[in-house]
Inverse folding.
């Protein structure tokens, strides 16, 4: 029998490893060219794929835990409370300036926004202003004409369009960085990942204190809660532009969506919002007839002196509806008069 020394075995192993690596590299290139888009951001794809897997792990951990009901209740509460940092903070306050908030309330909203962890207030508001200014065009970050999946998450997996890069730089954002709260979050996140620490560090600490398990807190209150909150926000860009009534502007893609409102803390009344984006309530109606916890928080903050100068467009919406109804009635009367003239002849 022929003997093989250790050196020869090592060479064979190295050759096999090299060959395997080369095969994997070739397979990746073939997959990218034949199945995946050429412009797909593979690093983003890998990140969000891994994030979904970890969130699924968190869901399994929560469901199999002896205190599963409590864990899921905590996840839902943290998801909704964190969502207020997006809906009330990044969206209604900083993107649209639909009300004025005092420093303590702005700090609270910044912390909730960091817990939501969907990009800094500065970047979120900048992109959202572009969305409203150029809705459903190539300068819209999540252009719905490119499909439901693109509007939901696909826009994060592809490079920004050239038109968005060109026009986006013209969006006025000086007011955002003029707010020390917004400026602090942006700098802190750039220097030491402030938002990630808040979004995942605090849940891990909570898991350790409440359950004696930091890993449980990270997976369930952190990763799972974060993914649910992400998808609820993305539903505003996708679901609320595809399903529901276009009550306030039949020509626009934005729609009234109860499903989205339930998921995204009252942000689903989207037809109204796109017609009157400066309204702090993002709905013509009050909280008794429209699910809108975000409006409720703003109203509470106003009651204790933390919010003032709230903007509303409900009266304008009603006047517009009355004018449209009057115009439609006049049109019907004109048709009736014309038909009567024909009969007389």
């Amino acid at each position: 029998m022929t003997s093989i020394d250790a050196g020869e075995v090592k060479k064979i192993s190295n050759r096999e490893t090299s060959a395997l690596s080369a095969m994997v590299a070739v397979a990746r290139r073939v997959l990218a060219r034949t199945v995946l888009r050429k412009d797909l951001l593979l690093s983003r794809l890998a990140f969000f794929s891994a994030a979904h897997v970890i969130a699924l792990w968190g869901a399994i951990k929560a469901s199999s835990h002896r205190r599963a009901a409590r864990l899921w209740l905590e996840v839902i509460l943290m998801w909704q409370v964190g969502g207020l940092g997006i809906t009330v903070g990044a969206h209604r306050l900083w993107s649209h300036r639909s009300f004025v908030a005092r420093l303590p309330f702005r700090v609270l909203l910044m912390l909730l926004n960091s817990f939501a962890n969907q990009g800094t207030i500065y970047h979120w508001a900048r992109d959202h202003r572009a969305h409203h200014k150029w809705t459903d065009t190539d300068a819209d970050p999540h252009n719905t004409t490119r499909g439901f999946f693109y509007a939901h998450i696909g826009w994060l997996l592809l490079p920004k369009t050239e038109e968005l890069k060109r026009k986006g730089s013209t969006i006025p954002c000086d007011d955002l960085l003029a707010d020390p709260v917004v400026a602090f979050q942006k700098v802190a996140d750039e220097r030491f990942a402030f938002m990630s620490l808040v979004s995942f560090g605090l849940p891990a600490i909570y898991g350790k204190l409440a359950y004696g398990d930091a890993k449980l807190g990270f997976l369930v209150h952190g990763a799972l809660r974060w993914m649910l909150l992400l998808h609820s926000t993305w539903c505003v860009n996708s679901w609320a532009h595809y399903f529901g009534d276009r009550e306030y502007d039949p020509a626009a893609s934005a729609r009234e969506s109860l499903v989205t409102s339930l998921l995204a803390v009252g942000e689903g009344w989207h037809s109204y919002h796109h017609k009157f984006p400066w309204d702090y309530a993002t709905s013509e109606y009050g909280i008794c007839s429209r699910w809108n916890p975000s409006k409720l928080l703003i109203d509470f903050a106003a009651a204790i002196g933390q919010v003032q100068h709230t903007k509303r467009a409900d009266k304008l919406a009603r006047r517009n509806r009355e004018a449209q109804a009057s115009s439609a009635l006049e049109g019907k009367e004109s048709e009736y008069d014309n038909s009567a003239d024909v009969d007389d002849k």
